[in-house]
Specification:
Blueprint lengths: L7 E5 L7 H12 L3 E7 L18 E4 L8 E5 L3 H10 L10 E8 L11 H11 L4 E6 L8 H16 L7 E6 L9 E4 L6 E10 L5 E10 L17 H6 L2 E7 L6 H9 L7
Parallel strand pairs: 1-2, 1-5, 2-4, 5-6, 6-7, 8-11
Antiparallel strand pairs: 3-4, 7-11, 9-10
Helix pairs in contact: 1-4, 2-3
Length: 274
């Protein structure tokens, strides 16, 4: 990446300050000459969605000796959304407006309906709330720890986004196959798919004999993915793209209005006074 256009970047995640994914991303971007501030949870906060901490204090502290020497890092007791909101609101933590908010690199994919639960996507979405272009990036494996391919891709991709910016701030959800770079089939701009799970609450007992439950589930990826109201059904979903070893890039928005159902209600004649 060219050193002529260093970027100011805020990075968060939901895997916590000690996760290898955020370390690979932050260090790679710092070595490319960018200005990096990290604010992320002090522990694992996966699947917290867009939750905020409202009824207990949020504590933050600086973190030393984990990242590239030029990286400024903070750990936060809150959720991923808390972290980004806090960073963008407290000048003593972040005294500049970031060019991008990045979240990741997540340990495991964020595909289809997973994004509704994802702390990674929610951290990036918080950046979009502030009209800052944001990117959520995930490695599509919970066991693979080779994050460098994903970090290199994001570093190069930010150059393209800087040279050809979107007309308005956008959130891009990127999932990268957990395979060597030379085996990646290519890049696909995708639509959101569906990912289903078989879920159970396992009944267990602690050492004192008290009952508790543990949620466990197994992903079942439907071969048939849903059509989209406004997009050609031939466009791959994010689920399909990863299955075929493509990097998946899905633009997301936070407006959840169901246009089709809105039009149905508007035309149904149930509310004549409207």
């Amino acid at each position: 990446m060219s050193q002529e256009k260093p970027l100011k970047l805020l990075i968060s995640n939901d895997d916590g300050i000690f996760a290898l994914g955020i370390r690979a991303l932050a260090n790679t971007l710092a070595e490319a000459g960018h200005q990096i501030t990290i604010v992320c949870p002090n522990r694992e906060r996966s699947a917290t969605g867009h939750g905020l901490t409202l009824h207990q204090p949020i504590r933050v502290e600086t973190v030393q000796d984990i990242f590239h020497p030029s990286v400024v890092a903070w750990s936060c007791s809150g959720t991923p959304a808390d972290c980004v909101k806090f960073a963008l609101s407290v000048q003593s933590v972040l005294d500049y407006r970031p060019d991008f908010v990045l979240a990741g690199i997540n340990h495991g994919s964020n595909l289809g309906t997973d994004i509704l639960y994802s702390g990674t996507v929610s951290a990036a979405m918080e950046g979009l709330f502030y009209s800052i272009p944001s990117v959520a990036v995930s490695l599509a494996s919970y066991t693979d720890r080779h994050f460098q391919t994903a970090a290199d891709f994001v570093t190069n991709f930010l150059t393209k986004l800087t040279d050809s910016p979107f007309p308005e701030a956008t959130l891009l959800n990127i999932n990268i196959p957990a395979i060597p770079a030379e085996k990646i089939a290519g890049i696909k701009i995708t639509r959101q798919g569906i990912r289903r799970y078989v879920e159970t609450f396992e009944k267990r007992f602690d050492p004192h004999g008290k009952c508790y439950y543990w949620l466990v589930g197994e992903a079942i990826e439907d071969l048939k993915q849903p059509d989209h109201l406004h997009l050609n059904p031939d466009i791959l979903t994010d689920v399909e793209a990863i299955r075929e070893n493509y990097i998946s890039i899905t633009p997301l928005q936070y407006n959840l209005t169901d246009v089709q159902s809105f039009e149905y209600l508007n035309q149904a004649g149930w509310f004549p006074n409207l």
